[in-house]
Amino acid sequence: MTLNINLNRVRNAVGITTNYELIEEKIDLTSELEMVKPIRISVMVTNNGPILELKGYINTEIKARCNRCLEDVIILINTVIEEELVYFADLRYLGNLSENEIEEKYIVFDNDIFDLTDIVRENIILSLPYKILCDERCRGLCFRCGQNLNIKECDCNTEEIDPRLAILAKLKRD
Ligand SMILES: [Zn+2]
Ligand SMILES: [Zn+2]
Predict the structure, then answer these.
(1) What is the pTM of this model?
(2) 153: left (phi over 0), alpha (psi -120 to 50) or beta
(3) Nearest ligand, CA of residue 136?
(4) What span, in angstroms and rounded, lies between the C-alpha atoms of 76 and 103?
(5) What digits encode the pLDDT tens for the residues 41-79?
(6) Residue 75 alpha carbon to ligand 1 centre in Å
(7) CA geometry: angle at 167 spanning 164 and 172, to 5°?
(8) Within 10 A of 14 (CB to CB), how many other CB atoms are there?
(9) How far is ligand 1, taken at its centre, from the CA of residue 72, in Å?
(10) Which of the two ends of the chain, N or C, has the fewest CB atoms closer than 10 A to its terminal CB?
(11) Closest listed ligand to the CA of 151
């Protein structure tokens, strides 16, 4: 299963734009992220001289795990993609850019059948929140017994004891 688009037509005519609509059941993300809804991708590629500008939207839903309690969390993905592509043979028109500069700014391709999978995967991962939580107030797991504290309290006494009070308590016992 791939997210291929054919760039031949747009690559060969400066100034034109081609639209692509794709739907795919599933693409592999990472071991912790699973796609739970078909992915819809809508992209527009415009030929601006040697550079092909790609702009579009990605829409899907993925299942991840809450960073605190490890329960499943469904995350709606609605994100924008913007990339600049350059055909390998057209690199010479970009002037004297170093290899690093090219790599930072552009995606170089040498086959008109272009697979969007890597771009899509990267953009989905970058669109995720820094911390994935089932709820802002998620209480997480007890660090002693592992009980999910959103469901019920456990019997562990995990309150921090003031070390000075602990010394007093010990003195009294002795
Ligand atoms: Zn949680
Ligand atoms: Zn506990």
Answers:
(1) 0.79
(2) beta
(3) 1
(4) 30
(5) 999 999 998 999 999 999 999 999 999 999 999 999 999
(6) 13
(7) 130
(8) 11
(9) 8
(10) C
(11) 1
Rounded distance from Cα 152 to ligand 2 centre (Å): 10
What are 130's two structure tokens? 């820094």
Across the chain, the runs of DSSP E, i.e. the strands, are 4-6, 17-24, 34-35, 39-48, 51-65, 72-87, 107-109, 113-115
Quote the tokens at residue 46.
Answer: 């415009």
Radius of gyration of the chain (CA): 25
Cα(67) to centroid(ligand 2), Å? 18
Distance CA 102, CA 79 (A): 25
* 44 touches 55 (CB < 8 A): yes
Phi, psi at 161, each rounded to 5°: -100, 130
Q: How far is the CA of 63 from the centre of ligand 1 (A)?
A: 13
Parallel, antiparallel or unpaired: strands 72-87 and 39-48: unpaired
pLDDT in tens, 71-122: 999 999 999 999 999 999 998 888 888 889 888 899 999 999 999 999 999 9
